[in-house]
Model the fold of this input.
Amino acid sequence: MDHLILEIGIALVLVAGAAIISSRLKISIVPFLIIAGMLVGPHVPKIGAIDLRFIESAPFIDFMGRVGVLFLLFYLGLEFSVTRLIKAGRSIAVGGTIYIGINFTAGLLYAYLADLPFKEVLVVAGITTISSSAIVAKVLFDLRRTANQETEMILGIIMFEDVFLAVYLSLVSGIVLSGATSFGGVLLSGVIALGFILGLIALGRFASPLLSKLLRISSNEVFILVIFGSLFLVAGLGEKIHVAEAIGALLVGLVLAETDEGERIEHMVVPFRDFFGAFFFFGFGLSIDPLALGGAIWLALGAVILTIIGNVVAGVLAGRSAGLAPLPSLNIGLTIVSRGEFSIILANLAKAGNLLPILQPFAALYVLILAVVGPILTKYSEDIYNFSLKFFQRRNALAEE
Done:
């Protein structure tokens, strides 16, 4: 353990460097963190006295990454509100259903046509369906589009995805982690996982007044220990019944969001989310062998193209269903095209379930490409719209001739 502190120090410097570069370029930090991890991972050869393989610190960084997942999903649960989703109305429900329906179906068919096994098909479909709420929020802020007319629909779809993610990740984790192979076993795993999430949410809804009273703790030190203790305990219990620990964290966030202390918890969690969340993406990069990415390049490129097309179609249909003009509708699809934390969570779930190893490099390439391309497409959405408009006008003119 002689070099543990040194390796952690180097990792922190690399993470900080990735943050600085992404901030200067105004691009999501996610791809930079993954690349940084890949460049110094255990697969990198030792060159003379230079050894950046992070061998001693790898287990510790992996643990910090797992904690990062808990805080990312916990914070997402704190921001999510069933009441907000209901108030958003029919348009968001319709738009979210259109978006999930198109992208999830496309992901299932793509994985099936790629001749992947059943469990791998479920994981790939999830990887290609869920947007990165962190990247979407950053793009909206950086491009100053928070007041745009399509932003409500974008946020509504993100919330709708959260509901889908909670149920889907619970079901898939039960199927993948339990090792069930028969139809009855798979069904039982899914029922147990779904019962866990629904039962905890129902308990939280009924017990929110009592929880509010119990959480009226004046000392911030005691308060945060109580919150974090609850977070890790529920996540661990969920893992025991084959529900991904990330979903346990999401459920705790959903329950605590209904209490009077939800805003206080949210403010206190942000630094932990950012710090440990960065190590999650960095640690994911450490697990990727750069030399093995070539085997997944065509699978990843095909998924990227399919995702962009599916997002444009879904965004336009969702926007038009809400009465939005063509450009704002196009903005919806392009803004939420980025994939990030949830895709990687599913890839790590596949690794924990001993599924095909190609899913790791596939997810890495897929997330890397869309985390970079997504914000660029969003930034130039008006130019894309004008080009498309001129193209179709010219084609119609030629057809009339």
Q: What stands out?
A: The chain has one domain: 61-391. The chain has a mean pLDDT of 81.
